[in-house]
Write a structure and sequence with these properties.
- By secondary structure, this protein is α+β, with helices and mostly antiparallel strands.
- The protein has an eight-stranded antiparallel sheet with strand order 4-1-20-17-22-15-14-13, with helices on one face. Strands 2, 3, 5, 7, 8, 9, 10 and 11 form an eight-stranded antiparallel sheet that branches.
- Strand 14 and strand 15 form a beta hairpin.
- Helix 4 packs across helix 5.
- The longest helix is centred in the middle third of the chain and has 15 residues.
- It is globular, with a radius of gyration of 23 Å.
- The two termini are about 35 Å apart.
Length: about 450
Amino acid sequence: MHRLNCHVQNYAWGKKGDDSEVGRLYGAGHKQFQIEQQKPYAELWMGTHPDGPARLHGSDLKLSEHRARLDNAPKEDDHLPFIMKIMAIQHTLSLQVHPTKEQATQLHEKDPFNYPDRNHKPELAYALNRFELLCGFRTAKEIMINMKSFPELQTVMGVDNCKRFMALVEAGHPDDSEELKQAIKDCFTTMIYIENHSEVLVENLAILRQNLEHGVRGCLIEDTVEVMFKTLDLFPGDVGCFAPLYLNHMILEPGECCYYAAEELHAYLSGECVECVGCSNNTIRAGLTNKYVDRESLVQVLNYRMTDPSYYIVPPQSLTPNVVEFAPDCRDFTLHEIKINDESSSSTSAELPNLDCASIIVFVSGDVQVEENDQKRHTVTRGDIYYIPKDTDVKLTRLSATPVLAYRTSSDEEGPDHSNRIRTDGLSQAEILKMRLRNEVRVSLNNNNQLADVSVEMDGFM
C-alpha cells in the first residue's frame, strides 16, 4: 500500500472554507495545507488523470508513473480507469452530458481542445448528506403534463413539436419507442438552439417565473419549484432554467447512490457526495452556464431515454458485516463503503475483500491500524488516502471510540491512454488561439464572446 497526496479543484461552484467537506478532509490528510475561508473547495480528486494526478506521499512521483514502473510498462504512465472524488456543491453545476467511448474518440479527432480525452465518463454519486441533482428525461407522461401546465415550455420547444409529442403520448406509445424519442429530440433541439438572453427566451422565462409564483405546478413538487427559482436567479436568460420541467429531480438521502452512463443529461444541484467517474474530463454543456455550448454535438450525443428516477438508483449489496458494495452496470468502477462502528459494537476490525485489481481508499473518520498481508502495520486517520495494489490482504482495526468510515473504489478495466492529450493550462488565450489555428481546429466562443478555454471548460465549471 502507498499513501497518496491528492489534488483539490477550486471550481467556483464549490463550498467555501470550513463549510466544505473537501477542504476539511484534504486538510486532515495533508498537514501542510491551510484552508482559506473565502476560497471554494469543490472536488478532491483521487486518481491518475492528468488534470489532477495523485502522487506518492513524500515524493513527486505520480501514481501513474509508479504503476508503469511496477508493471515494466513500455509507456511512461499507466492510468487507472476511474477517478474517485469527494464533491462539495454550493451552487448548481452546468447542465451537461458526457459522450460514449466511440463518441469521445470522434469528438477528440474533430476538436482535441474542447474534447481532450478519448475516454467515456460514466458517473456514480453516493450521497454523504442530502444530495440533489437533475438526471435523465422525465417519463413522457410527466413531460406532457408540464407542457400543458406551462405553455411557455411549448413556445420554446416549438408548439408543433410539442403537439406531435403529446399526441404520441396520448396514443399510448411507450416511453422507449423510437417515435417518442424522436419527438422529444425535436422538442429539445428547437429549444437548445434558442440563443441565451434572446428576447423570446427572456420573455418566456419571465412567464415561467410568474406562473410558478402564482402556484402553477404541473407535476412539480415544492422542492423542485425551489430549485427552479434558484436557477432563475443564478442564471437569468439561460435556456437551462426550463430543465426541471423535463428532467427528473432526484433527492438522495445520506447513503443512497445513483449511477448514469454516457448520453444522459444531468446537473448536480447541491450537497456533498463521493463520486466515481471514468478517467475522462470531456463535457458537453447544455445550459446553466456562461461557457461554450456545443449544440451540434449535444443533440447527437443524448440518448433521449425517458424514465422514472428509480432507474438510476444503485442498490447496496452487503459483502461482509463491514463492507457494502455499490456496483453499477459499468466496468470502470465499483464503490465499497467500509464501516467499523463505535465501542458499543462487538466488531472492532474488518477484513477487506482481496481484489484482483488495484484500488484507492480514503478514510473519512476514525483512527485505524492497517495490517497489510498479515505483516506490515501502520496507523491511519481521517483524510489519509492510500493506493492498494491488486491481490493485497488488508485488515482494519479501530483504535478509538470514533466509528471508522472509509470508501474504496476499484476496477479491473484497463485505464485509458492520455499520452497524446493536448494541454492548454498555463497558456494565454493568444497562445491557445495560435495552437488551434495551427492545428486547423474550430475556434469556439462562449456566451461572452470569449475564446472557449479548455482549462476552464472542464466538468465542474459554471
